[in-house]
Hints:
The protein is an alpha/beta fold. The chain has 12 helices and 8 strands. An 8-stranded parallel β-sheet has the order 3-2-1-8-7-6-5-4. Strand 6, helix 7 (179-186) and strand 7 (191-194) form a beta-alpha-beta unit. Helix 1 runs parallel beside helix 2 (64-77) and helix 11 crosses helix 12 (287-302).
Amino acid sequence: MPEIPGVSAPWRGVHVATALPFHDDDELSVDYEGYAAHVRFLAEHGCDGVCPNGSLGEYQTLTDEERARVVRVAVEAAPEGFGVMPGVAAYGAMESRRWAEQAREAGAQAVLALPPNSYRADREAVVGHYREVARAGLPVVAYNNPHDTKVDLTPELLAELHGEGLIVAVKEFSGDVRRAYEIAERSPGLDLLIGADDVLLELGLAGAVGWIAGYPNAIPEVTMELYRLATSGVGTDLEKALPLYRALHPLLRWDSRTEFVQAIKVSMDLAGLRGGSCRPPRSRLTGEVAARVVQETETVLGLGYR
């Protein structure tokens, strides 16, 4: 398993899948200074790291130059001890490996890798894909999102990937919280990371040691407190965690919906942060959906949560 000198399990803890700000010009150019400021803001508010170039960071709309620069900006903005774990998703395995190499050269500590997502890949193709990404030499966190990729990293397949030394952890986004227990049974050394905001409590109690998170972009302090209360081995306090989870859950659900990027950016704007516009094809929320996001965000902020 790849190791980073002086760093122990840098994929653990709360890594925010960062939203990416754009300038309000015709090209919606990337606001790199604004992004660096957001990385520093998350570090100052207790988060453990960031995951640039995930879906929340709209990596699919970036040029290669923009995508590479986003990683470099995150690394440069990160204070000592604050992790950077870029997403390296791509249609081709060799392209994913090249993004992992770019992350290593920029100074990242680990990478987050989806399985092949250009078609419904079989077991052999999935294993081959992760072998290629692992060649870059950084620890690889697998990202299981069968809803979007149509490839399911089942507990059995994860055990094979982990047994071969290709992955160190899994971001579990299937929504099936029962899987946490089978993953632990089949792969005792594989770290479970919470992959969706609205299953934080369930996977935290099931033994997760990290969270790749959406809503800390907008409300980092209260979500970090919820993580601490809900995560086994950190100081679990269900009596305090459950009412807080209930209060936040209407908002946290947006992380698992189609409009999650726009919703989180709206919440950031309402919290006085830099959310802003999305690049096409995502468009600004309107009508009932926009009204619900605004109302649910204002309810949370009105309770004094930030």
